[in-house]
Specification:
By secondary structure, the protein is of the alpha/beta class. The protein contains four helices and five strands; from the N terminus they run E-H-H-E-E-E-H-E-H. Helix content is 37%, strand content 16%. A hairpin with a 6-residue loop joins strand 3 and strand 4.
Length: 114
């Protein structure tokens, strides 16, 4: 099931959750490529596939780097938000690590094709 929460805000009326989407067996990169005009915002988190756990960025299977680089390279106007759900001694520090992970992904030299 694809979750794209819609409102009456016109053609850009959706919110996508990359980690849940990927964990359920869908490709958030391809979905974003095809439906970017309808996505207002994207919640970013890393999860293991097959309904796996939410884990720190870089420890899961969600293609976070590829997704961020697609949005960067194609200049899609999609806001990204870090979502923190796993147990941590210091959740604020974990969010900071997530922000740093996303920054490194966006600074990566890889360019998305197509």
């Amino acid at each position: 099931m694809v979750r794209l929460f819609c409102s009456s805000a016109g053609s850009k009326a959706g919110h996508a959750i990359a980690g849940h989407f990927f964990s359920a067996g869908f490709d958030p990169v391809e979905f974003t490529r095809l439906r970017h005009e309808q996505i207002l915002s994207l919640h970013l988190k890393d999860r293991k596939k097959n309904q796996g756990a939410t884990v720190p960025f870089g420890e899961g299977d969600t293609p976070v780097t590829e997704l961020l680089q697609l949005i960067r390279d194609k200049r899609y106007g999609i806001a990204g938000f870090i979502e923190h759900e796993y147990e941590a001694k210091d959740p604020v520090e974990e969010v900071r690590k997530g922000v740093e992970y996303c920054k490194r992904a966006l600074l990566g030299a890889t360019r998305v094709q197509g």
